[in-house]
Amino acid sequence: MSFESFFNPKSVAIVGASSQKGKVGYEILSNMISAGYGGKLYPVNNKADEIEGLKCYPDLESIGSVPELVILVIPAKIVPMIMQQCAKLGTKSVIIITAGFKEVGKEGKALEEKVVQIAREAGIRIIGPNCLGIIDTANKLNACFGGDLPDVGGIAYLSQSGALLAAILDIATANKIGFSKLISIGNKADIGELDLIKALANDDETKVIAGYLESITDGDEFVRQAEKISHIKPILLIKSGSTAAGATAASSHTGSLAGSEVAYETAFERAGIIRCESIKQQFDYAQAFSNQPLPKDARVAVITNAGGPGIMAADAIESKGLKFAKLDEKTIEKLGSTLPAAANIHNPIDVLGDSMADRYSFALSTALDDPNVDVVLILLTPQAMTDAKGTAEAIVKISKEKPAKPVLTCFLGANKIAEGVEILRNGKIPQYDSTDGAVATIKVMTEYVRWKSRPKRVVKLFPVNRRKVENIIERHIRQGIREVGETESKEILEAYGFFTPKGSIATTADQAGNIAEQLGFPVVMKIWSPDILHKSDVGGVKVGLKSVQEVKDAFDLMMYRIPKKQPDAHILGVLVQEMCKSGKEVILGMNRDPHFGPLMMFGMGGIMVEVLKDVSFHLAPLTSDEAKQMLIDTKTYKILKGVRGQQGVDIDKIAEGLQRLSQLVTEFPQILEMDINPFVVGPVGSTPIAVDARMSLEV
Amino acid sequence: MSFESFFNPKSVAIVGASSQKGKVGYEILSNMISAGYGGKLYPVNNKADEIEGLKCYPDLESIGSVPELVILVIPAKIVPMIMQQCAKLGTKSVIIITAGFKEVGKEGKALEEKVVQIAREAGIRIIGPNCLGIIDTANKLNACFGGDLPDVGGIAYLSQSGALLAAILDIATANKIGFSKLISIGNKADIGELDLIKALANDDETKVIAGYLESITDGDEFVRQAEKISHIKPILLIKSGSTAAGATAASSHTGSLAGSEVAYETAFERAGIIRCESIKQQFDYAQAFSNQPLPKDARVAVITNAGGPGIMAADAIESKGLKFAKLDEKTIEKLGSTLPAAANIHNPIDVLGDSMADRYSFALSTALDDPNVDVVLILLTPQAMTDAKGTAEAIVKISKEKPAKPVLTCFLGANKIAEGVEILRNGKIPQYDSTDGAVATIKVMTEYVRWKSRPKRVVKLFPVNRRKVENIIERHIRQGIREVGETESKEILEAYGFFTPKGSIATTADQAGNIAEQLGFPVVMKIWSPDILHKSDVGGVKVGLKSVQEVKDAFDLMMYRIPKKQPDAHILGVLVQEMCKSGKEVILGMNRDPHFGPLMMFGMGGIMVEVLKDVSFHLAPLTSDEAKQMLIDTKTYKILKGVRGQQGVDIDKIAEGLQRLSQLVTEFPQILEMDINPFVVGPVGSTPIAVDARMSLEV
Fold it and tell me: What's the whole-model pTM score?
């Protein structure tokens, strides 16, 4: 989509414009006028001749030209009719403010579908319905009833909650937070978050894309696109409904279905999206991203006029995994030669309680010159001699003179620092009301830098026998069989380069003995019957059989005992299988998320997964690095590497297994769920074995 | 200490009072006057006859009566002289504002010690030096140069950072946060945090004790006292310097030594102290504790005029482990009969975007009546019809009519909600700028309630042979031996009721065989020499010996080989010891913290402690519940209980072991460090064995 006709329209018609204060049709018209919109503005209302000094038209047609943007503030049931008129007229952009659609139930949903159908046929794009409208500060467009036009700035905001947008506008006005655009996306019947984020990526006014979402419509495509856009500018999102209670509240609110929380986590991580927990946190981050350069690395220098806040900042820096900058010798020397003797010339630089603007200015300038410093955090508490205003001016000046490194401030207080804070805000210096907030912001900035500089994702494609898998899966789907059995699951795995234990079905004790002899001892035996799901429960599994005699005995015992336990079971024989050499057991798995597609799982086997739930997740398709990271992300990764002199296992082979499985489930979207459990892996150079597998299809 | 003469003095002298604006001696006098202090005020300065309309005295003596409180704002070096005058005069309470003492190094420290000595001899109590002073709102006493007298309220604040106190005062004034008392404790040369907290516990004006501390002077006593006080009123503390970087910054700032972070954590937990991470968080909590009743349980009802914030609150409630209240049928019915059809009458109760005060009022009143609701959180975003002021008034009114349950609000916005927020603040309704902040506050309130209602701590005392341990320890200390050897460590453990493996020293192979036969096989053999610390390294440990012959062979091999490896070792023989029956290995340990005394440690043995650092801590002395909690606090506790059909071990016996060790290290403060590793524990009913122990003494 192009933004042009939504955000920079030459003419705007408001259908349902009203002269009655408090009515939405009045608020929007009045907001358009007071924002100073420069284009042509047409109120449409068949009960008025003039509203707010503007000629009022009885209907769209009588305007006599085609308004580029039409805003609808009319009862839901007549929206389709007006949409028809728009179609006839040739308008391509419509904002539907009106509520009473999908969010109110079945009838509303049908109405919404009708509206969308009209739009699709006529090539009309819609924002809404059930929204507050849109704002574009650069074009002085306030087509919204959320509040006054805010300051111009680099933050674009899109919100699935109109009420929240209204609160944000109020907070923004009070704190002079600047925006490029604000969009209330409402029911997103047509234009959704992805369209907007893509358009905002190319919007020169926008430096940061921020938003509040309760659902993401096309998760898979969203991740793909967002990953590209995150390289251009940061995306900061609140995704609510992340808990069961929240999701229930969300679905009763918007009717949208919650995706799985872990899928959202991994999707955002892949896409480089910075997830925020609250509006406050989001604006903490956004003001830094939109106004300051990115830091090269995570080494933070702190300048303070008080010990206490300095210590609190040091605590926060260390506990968040940032680095407390070790100042260069020259810096220390320079600070020492000018600051009073009692000052601390090491990090945190304490310019002392009686510091005026000059010492701050000098310390900041010196710290910015230090090659060991990537970012400077300035703390100020209002003490007897403190000059918050002058200090703020000095900080803005120095930061403009030396713009290569980010500078953040935390002036603690209220009235005594208010003037200073205003100067900082106008001077584009991000200011925080707690050391924690400032340090958390530095943390996400460094994480974003790290994300951006990661190597390009290359997903390796292994040569596989795709046709074979196709055949098996198609046959199952044709026959409506959901679960793929053990033998065929293994055929599929072998077609994708996995090794599975060798073995054959024996129908007599002698045959079992022969098979075992060929495989070599020890062997495993498993009863073979489509009717027996839990083989162990009926005594249908024997492991560690060491001789032909033991194999024969086991065969006969199974044949004698199992029919007694489960008389209706059709027994096909006994599987005699090679037994895996000792190794660690791990689990490779996949669950298909309804929003984001295949979600890969890696788990430590045995007791670890049971006691510690020691698993990690990542969206497919996996790169080699991502597969390895999944191993590293488990709590007991060290066990794979080998501890206490125990030999480690072949990490790369596990990663390869994950990549192969990732390729399989990516190439076959029919696979809904899949587990290789256990996947037995030995020391470096050995071949891991997919001992058992489970797979279900969408039929 | 009594507060009387510090906080409600009938007369105050300010030595170093000044008529020069900006000087501290002026600021304090001026603050005293403008606060409306009702007692007698004596400026003392030999260079002025009158300051700010008050008669000025050349020295304390010439006042002609004894000022109850003396404030010193004079150069550090003449402080001892003036203290002598105070002593002579009979003043008992002195605030020393002056800096230049312990915090500037050796000379300052000596000066401070001199001042304290004068005070001790004369029975004078001191606040400071190096502080901002004190404030008492009820008595209109502003003996402080941090800012104006704040509103009267239930929060007492003590701060080890003067600058932070100044920032807090500024924030408090702007946000109308009420205080009972504020105390800048400075270098705490005499009066420290504990004196103040004890006094504030009995102060009727104070509902909540809050503070910022960089160090705690007498940790052990602090915990004991704070535990009692926390039952009377909540204590909310920021303890900074919790990371290595923070601690370094703190020690360079105040010269105070950092205790171990884990000791602080466990000490605060035992004492019921609510730890805060930032000033903002602290006041988030404090305003609720000081103005609202405590909730009975954790079931939260949410009322909102917007879906988005409702979902965010639901997310926060669930992710913080609180309960999302399930409304009573009657409540739902009542809500349904009055609210519009589109409203959500289940939790979160959505009164809709066009709600005025009436719906909020009705919903709040109804929710407070619901027996399934313990606390109500009200959300408001400023929408077209929203009446923030009227809604705030309604909330204050209903909350006063139904005062049994806590009510918190989160009005999101700024200018549009400002009037409402002021009404809430004046009406003692805690108001938050994010749902997160509100929910975090509810969380700590419920945790505090839980802490208060936990059963009384009863530390069981086991009958032990204390005299025996005394003898061993005293002998070691007399001889300057720091490490207690294996034999005597075990004697000590046996004296405290532990079982250790049976065994004796053999000096010949035959003797070894006989001992083994008596013990029963298998046995363990260990070389016995005071010179060999690492027995395994020289081949001095053999386990699992199953026959007399194996024992004899092992003996002879050790005797042949070890002298070759370590020719200077004096070998006393070989210890032949029973071998533990199979069981789980765990570690029981203790480290004596310099501030808080014996810190007990429990760890899972083997691979768990190595890979997962799976350990937990608690301060001694331990109750039975606390000992069990230490086990539960480990990540792999389930393994002790038994997983995958494996039999569990005797949990109570491990807890008893921890309690016995706790008793030992509490009764013998000479023990600096101690480990029982491994402590082998079997199934319920079996006797655990302390296989090996290590102990070091303070010599």
Answer: 0.89
Chain B CA closest to residue A608: B636
* Chain A (276-315) residues lying within 8 Å, Cβ to Cβ, of chain B: 277-280, 305-312, 314-315
Model confidence at B2, pLDDT cuts 50, 70, 90, reads: low
Q: What is the DSSP letter of A335?
A: H
The overall average pLDDT reported for chain B is 92
Q: Give the C-alpha separation, A105 to A127, whole Å.
A: 20
Quote the pLDDT of residue B252.
53
How far apart are the C-alpha atoms of A656 and A648, rounded to whole Å?
A: 16
Chain A hits for B318, Cβ within 8 Å: 243-246
Q: What is the SS3 assignment for A383? A: coil
> In this structure, what are the phi and psi dihedrals at residue B586, rounded to the nearest 5 degrees?
-130, 175
Given a contact cutoff of 8 angstroms between Cβ atoms, the answer to whether B133 and B143 are in contact is yes
Give whichever of A642-656, B126-140, B542-556 has the largest mean pLDDT.
B126-140
Is B268 inside a domain boundary?
A: yes
Between CA B624 and CA B688 the distance in angstroms is 17
Residue of B nearest to A347 (CA): B249
Q: B660 lies in a domain?
A: yes
Query: Which residue among A145, A413, A434 sits closest to B280, beta carbon to beta carbon?
Result: A434
Domain with residue B438: its CATH number is: 3.40.50.261
Please name the residue of chain A whose CA is at the shortest distance from the CA of residue B277: A436
Interface predicted TM-score (ipTM): 0.88
Provide DSSP, A480-503. T--EEPHHHHHHHHHHTT-----E
Cβ atoms of B381 and B305 within 8 Å: the answer is: yes
Q: Which domain holds residue A111?
A: 4-288
- Which residues of chain B neighbour A162 with C-beta distances below 8 Å? 306, 353, 383
All residue ranges of chain A with pLDDT < 50 are 253-258
Within-domain flag for B322:
yes
Residues 6+ apart with CB under 8 A from A295: A374, A375, A405, A406, A442, A445, A446, A449
Q: Looking at A577-581, A584-588, B212-216, B219-223, which range is the least confident one?
A: A577-581
Residues A126 and A54 in one domain: yes
Q: How far apart are CA A209 and CA A489, in angstroms?
A: 44
Instruction: Tell me if B461 is assigned to some domain.
Output: no
Flag whether residue A245 sits within 8 Å of chain B, measured between CB atoms: yes
**A279 and A365 within one domain:** no
One-letter-per-residue 3-state SS of A552-596: HHHHHHHHHHHHHHCCCCCCCEEEEEECCCCCEEEEEEEEEECCC
Are A67 and A11 within 8 A, CB to CB? yes
Point out the residue among A240, A350, A415 whose CB comes nearest to the CB of B311. A240
Decide which of A260, A288, A316 is a domain's last residue.
A288
Give yes or no: residues A240 and A329 share one domain: no
Statement to judge: residues A209 and A223 lie in one domain: yes
- Of the pLDDT bands very low, low, confident and very high (cuts 50, 70, 90), residue B43 is very high
Identify from B26, B132, B311, B356 which residue to disrupt to test chain A contact, counting A C-beta atoms within 10 A and taking the largest count: B311
Within this chain, do residues B308 and B251 fall inside the same structural domain, yes or no?
Answer: no
pLDDT of residue B431: 97
Q: pLDDT band for position B54 (50/70/90)? A: very high
- List beta partners, residue A578: A523
In A, which residues are within 8 Å of B436 by CB distance? 277-278, 280
Counted domains in chain A:
4
Q: pLDDT (tens digit, 9 = 90+) per residue, B368-412? A: 999 999 999 999 999 888 999 999 999 999 999 999 999 999 999
B520 plus B417 within the same structural domain: no
Q: Tell which A residues from 602 to 661 touch B, by Cβ distance under 8 Å.
A: 607, 610-612, 635-636, 638-639, 643-644
A533 contacts chain B (CB < 8 A): no
